[in-house]
Amino acid sequence: MNCIVIDDEATARMIISQLCSNVPSLTVLEEFPNAMQAIKYLNQNEVDLIFLDIHMPDFTGFDFIETLKTPPKIILTTSDPNFAIQAFEYDCIVDYLVKPITQERFNKAIAKAEAKQNKPVATNSKIEKVAATSGNDLYVNIDRRLIKIDIPSIYLVEAKGDYIQVKTEDKNYTVHSTLKKIEEKLPDSLFLKVHRSYIINVMKIIDIEDNSVLIKKDVIPVSRSNRPELMKRLNLL
Amino acid sequence: MEQPNQSYINSLSGGDEAFKQKLINVIKKEFPEEKQVYLNNYNAKNYKLAADNVHKLKHKISILGLEKGYDVAVAYENNLLEGSTNQKEAFEAILNSITTYLEEL
After folding, report:
1. Residue numbers in B near A100 (CB within 8 A)
2. Secondary structure letter of residue A38 according to DSSP
3. Does residue A70 surpass a pLDDT of 60?
4. What string of pLDDT tens digits covers the 105 residues of chain B?
5. Which residue of B has its CA nearest to A99?
6. Beta-strand pair A205-209/A212-215
7. Which residues contact residue A167 at a Cβ distance below 8 angstroms, ignoring those fewer than 6 apart?
8. Distance between A96 CA and the closest CA of chain B, angstroms
């Protein structure tokens, strides 16, 4: 695994590099005394693993992780054991080493990182995930907090690549999920998939043209295959 | 009072004398700088910044095998974060002990 070391303390960087040198599968590509330099490097280079100090001036290790769209595996190195719980809220963090680090404990961390090699790592915690539903509520994970959305207030869900946008009367939420997943969480009585990229709340329809519906100010396409089901839902005169 | 030692450094170096000496040189360079920054912040009553400095110095204290000293540093760091200077004398005695030790290496 190719790795980099980020620590504002030269002694710590030297120790971690020495520990790495005793593991044949590890190659230390670079060492950085601060997160900003590492970010610049990572904009142009890929690494498998980062040894990251949490407690750095100006820009902490957690701040650094939040900047990464697709973080590699990260092993935190710190003199403070109190961050352990926070650390494991990040899927990319494979272990948490308290300084001074022994070779034995270091090797265990590397074994964990290697076990995770080839497994996809979730992106950072800013991304929201569909979590659960309870009655009329849908919970999404935002910054490690579960935020409640009132399901009847949702009028539109739109697929956008790896994300979905959930639009409600009050607010829009960008969620790292799929239309299929949220469709399973929404009641059939209110919601209908009218297009491969759109689920609408049928109670919120303003008008319908041949191949589109107007919901609030959004004009949503209706695919030919979904149109019969939509028409069945309407109380036609 | 416990004294600094090289147990951890020896274990880490695994007999690699070149690495051991290089590491000691880095510590000898970095420690006085960190100590001075701590003293400056303490004297300016910037206790939060001083706590950050103590946090960083904790690593050196533990590298030099000062287990009780490490506990003192942890308590002192927390005290500084709460605006208290309790444990200052004990902590600075540890710093002075390390200074003397490094000068003799």
Report:
1. 8, 59, 62-63
2. H
3. yes
4. 789 999 999 999 999 999 999 999 999 999 999 999 999 999 999 999 999 999 999 999 999 999 999 999 999 999 999 999 999 999 999 999 999 999 998
5. B59
6. antiparallel
7. A154, A155, A156, A157, A158, A216, A218
8. 16
Query: Could you give the angle at which helices B17-43 and B88-104 cross, rounded to 10 degrees?
Result: 140
Q: Which of A22, A57, A99 sits opposite B59 (nearest CB)?
A: A99
User: Would an 8 Å CB–CB cutoff place A30 in contact with chain B?
Assistant: no
- A7 to chain B: closest CA residue: B56
pLDDT tens per residue across span A194-214: 998 899 998 889 998 878 889
Interface check B61 vs A, CB under 8 A: no
pLDDT at A155 exceeding the cut of 80: yes
Predicted pLDDT of residue A141: 72
ipTM, interface predicted TM-score of the complex: 0.94
Fold annotation for A129-233? OB fold (Dihydrolipoamide Acetyltransferase, E2P) (2.40.50)
Instruction: Report the pLDDT value the prediction gives residue A51, as an integer from 0 to 100.
Output: 97
CB B64 within 8 A of CB B101: yes
Distance CA B50, CA A215 (A): 58
> Residue ranges per domain, chain A?
2-116, 129-233
Domain edges within chain B:
32-104
Please state which architecture CATH assigns to domain A2-116: 3-Layer(aba) Sandwich (3.40)
**pLDDT (average), residues A65-70:** 81
Interfacial A residues in 39-98 facing B (CB < 8 Å): 55, 57, 79-80
Burial (0-12, 13-18, 19+ Cβ within 10 Å), A115: exposed
